[in-house]
């Protein structure tokens, strides 16, 4: 192998390396949006949209006779906001956050107990013929 | 409990909530559904309390709050009368709204607890989510308080309308948007509380022009809002369970609002702009009655005699039955008629009562089996074969003008075809029109007999006549 051949081959190799680097860069560009999918907000947004669809189909399946208990039940479960209130009360050192958290826990608890209880009372009344 | 474990627990709770709603597809599975909901909530609360970093003092405070609130809720739920259910639900919605406001405030003053920044320097995205949760929560609160006052009769159900109302609301809406943008840019506590105050005012102003009988739509809509508020808070604090549940509740309330609007053939915008039925209906009815054939009024004895000889009787209950607390005596009447060999069923219009499904609950309370109670599409073909339609406390939902009179305010609204029955009894206090302010031409038909008086008293007298 002559020095000029070696030089030529080295040049060819470096060209291919440059080409590969360019391809890698393009791939990385394409992958960027996928990395964004791991962004917590987008994940939560996706979950939110899926849950909207699930809610839509499940609620259309509810018999109209039970629309009042449905309101009672959704009212009770929407008080799951208590989770945020508990975190604020238990995790923070700020007095303001503790006070607001405690108030929110109490209000949500009225709703949780009241909502489930009143729904149970309603549902207990629905009886079949001869039942 | 480590973060992965608590997230898993939240997932389990989300699935249980979905199963809870699924259970309501049939009365048989509904009680189990409610149980799923309770278990889901218990898991959510336990998983949160067991998170690492919870201070002992905080846990004590939380348990105290749960105990106080739980006790109040239990007592209220056990004492409430079923006729007062709509206002109870409105009151509960207001609590969710207020809780959302408080949680937003807690997140604002202690953002480090939720990993969204430090006081005075919160991530912009979190500020957007926080202000949305705050605004929707506050609107839900004050709107629900007005709905509660109207439903409980502590405030007139009549629409409150003034000049430039819609312009004022639109202007306040724009102002709210400006405040939110400024809040996100600066993170100022003053702006936080201004958003809260403006949203309270907006919730109040949005609901006052809406009339009493449109409350089923309002209650459903506020149900939806309480869900969106929870979802907004869920985004703020990055919690999956709040987001899923908020979406479920939001979707549920939105669907119920849609069903109610369809039941009246009105758009949600039309309902929300308010003022419906505010023209004095009584005057219109009086004027029209003069050039009509006279109405035929009967006594409870006449009604008892006709019903005794009837084979098929359909009862059509409306809000008037709830007001008169007549559901129990209606069921007694039905029992006596069944003994005479008649077939008795009940027809429920989607917007009967003051909340979705209100009539079904009242009839169930009076021990009417749910398989005798039918929805509009199901029972409408049967009126043609019925000997008697017994309309108690309902009016607009039976008015045939909805099918024929294009100029009528209720044109296009689906109605119960009571006019096809051989005899129609209308139990009513007087000749006044219904909520829509439209005269019911059915009163003047030859096959209609009016039974004037209080719904409960008239039905009681029929029961006495049947027993004789």
Key features?
heterodimer; A: 131 residues; mainly alpha; 5 helices; 83% helix; B: 468 residues; alpha/beta; Rossmann fold; 3 domains; 6-stranded parallel beta sheet; two-stranded antiparallel sheet; 18 helices; elongated
From the N-terminal CA to the C-terminal CA of chain B, the straight-line distance is 70 Å
Beta content of chain B comes to: 5-15%
Give the helix/strand class of chain A: mainly alpha
**Residue-averaged pLDDT of chain B, rounded?**
91
Major beta sheet of chain A, specifics? none
How many beta-strand segments of chain B?
8
| Helix content bin of chain B | 55-70%
Uncertain ranges of chain B: 278-290
Give, in order, the helices and strands of chain A: HHHHH
Strand and helix order of chain B: HHHHEEHHHHHHHHEHHEHEHEHEEH
Instruction: Note the overall shape of chain B.
Output: elongated
Measured as a percent range, the helix fraction of chain A is over 70%
In the sheet with the most strands of chain B, the strands line up as 5-4-3-6-7-8
Largest interface by Cβ-Cβ < 8 Å:
A-B, 83 and 119 residues
Distance between the termini of chain A: 100 Å
Q: How much β-strand is present in the residues of chain A?
A: under 5%
Counted beta strands of chain A: 0
Q: Report on the biggest sheet of chain B.
A: 6 strands, parallel
